[in-house]
Write a structure and sequence with these properties.
With about 230 residues, this protein is of the alpha/beta class. Helix content is about 40%, strand content about 25%. It has helices spanning about 1-15, 20-35, 50-60, 85-90, 105-115, 130, 150-155, 175-180, 185-190, 225-230, and strands at about 75, 95-100, 120-125, 140-145, 160-170, 190-200, 205-215. A 7-stranded mixed β-sheet has the order 3-2-1-4-5-7-6, sandwiched between helices. Strand 4 (about 140-145), helix 7 (about 150-155) and strand 5 (about 160-170) form a beta-alpha-beta unit. The longest helix is centred in the N-terminal third of the chain and has 17 residues, at about 20-35. The radius of gyration is 17 Å and the shape is globular. The protein starts with a helix and ends with a helix. The model has no long low-confidence stretch (mean pLDDT about 95).
Length: about 230
C-alpha cells in the first residue's frame, strides 16, 4: 500500500486538495480491495498500486475541483468498480452518493465491500435509461467515467440532474472532439458547457467536462439505449 499512498499524497497538492490521513488510508484500502478483487473479477486493467492511485483515485478526485459538493446528491452513472463515486464519497463525507451500474456482480461486490471500509454509498443495479424513471431530475450532480462517448453519455446522464445542477464527465484526450460531436445535443437536453478542465497524470491527459443543467430535459429522453447508440443526438 506504500506505493499507492505515496502516489496519492504526491498528487493531491497538484489538485489543490487536502485530505485527512484517515481519508487517505480509506482510499488506499479501497484501491487495494479493487486490485484483490480483480484477480477473480474483471474490474480494471490497471493493477499497479501507484497507477491505481494516479489513474483511478486521483482521476476521480478531480471532480472536487469543480466546486463544493457538501450536502449535494450525486449519482455515478455506470460506476464500474466504483470510480469516481467511491473516492468522492470518501473525500466528501457530506456528499450523498448513489452508485449505478447495470452489472449485478460488480454492484454486489461494492455493496459487500464498502461497509467494511466505512464508506457510505447507495448501490443500484439497473440500466441508466431505465433507472431514471424513478428518480428523474432528483440529483445535483451526475458523474460518469469511461462509459461512452459524450454524444451518447449525455442523454443517459442529463435526465438525472435537476435544473441548476451539473453533469460532470471524466474524459481523456478526445474530450474536445467529443464536445464538438454533441454540440447539437446540449440544448436539446437542457445543458450548457460551463468549463473544460485538463489534468495530467504521468503525461496522460485527463479532462473534466462540466455542463450546467439550464432547463428540464424533455420527457422523451433518454430513449432506449439501442436507439441512442444508433442515432446520437
Amino acid at each position: 500500500m506504500n506505493e499507492m499512498m505515496d502516489a496519492l499524497a504526491a498528487g493531491l497538492p497538484q489538485l489543490g486538495l487536502t485530505l485527512t490521513q484517515k481519508q487517505m488510508d480509506t482510499l488506499c484500502a479501497f484501491g487495494e480491495a479493487v486490485i484483490r478483487q480483480n484477480e477473480v473479477m474483471n474490474l480494471t486493467a490497471i493493477t499497479d498500486p501507484a497507477q491505481v492511485a494516479k489513474l483511478h483515485l486521483l482521476d476521480s478526485l478531480t471532480v472536487l475541483t469543480a466546486g463544493d459538493l457538501s450536502g449535494k446528491r450525486l449519482i455515478d452513472v455506470g460506476c464500474g468498480a466504483g470510480f469516481p463515486g467511491v473516492p468522492l464519497a470518501v473525500a466528501c463525507p457530506a456528499l450523498e452518493v448513489t452508485l449505478l451500474d447495470s452489472l449485478g456482480k460488480r454492484v454486489r461486490w461494492l455493496e459487500e465491500t464498502l461497509p467494511t471500509l466505512g464508506i457510505s454509498a447507495r448501490c443500484v443495479t439497473a440500466r441508466a435509461e431505465e433507472a431514471v424513471q424513478s428518480c428523474r431530475e432528483q440529483y445535483d450532480v451526475a458523474t460518469s467515467r469511461a462509459v461512452a462517448r459524450l454524444n451518447i453519455l449525455l442523454e443517459l446522464t442529463a435526465p438525472y440532474v435537476r435544473p441548476g445542477g451539473r453533469v460532470i464527465a471524466l474524459k481523456g484526450s478526445a474530450a474536445r472532439e467529443e464536445l464538438d460531436e454533441c454540440a447539437r445535443a446540449l440544448p436539446k437536453l437542457g445543458l450548457r458547457l460551463e468549463e473544460r478542465k485538463d489534468f495530467s497524470f504521468d503525461g496522460a491527459v485527463h479532462t473534466l467536462v462540466i455542463l450546467k443543467k439550464t432547463k428540464p430535459t424533455p420527457p422523451q429522453y433518454p430513449r432506449r439505449y439501442a436507439k441512442i447508440k444508433q442515432s446520437p443526438l
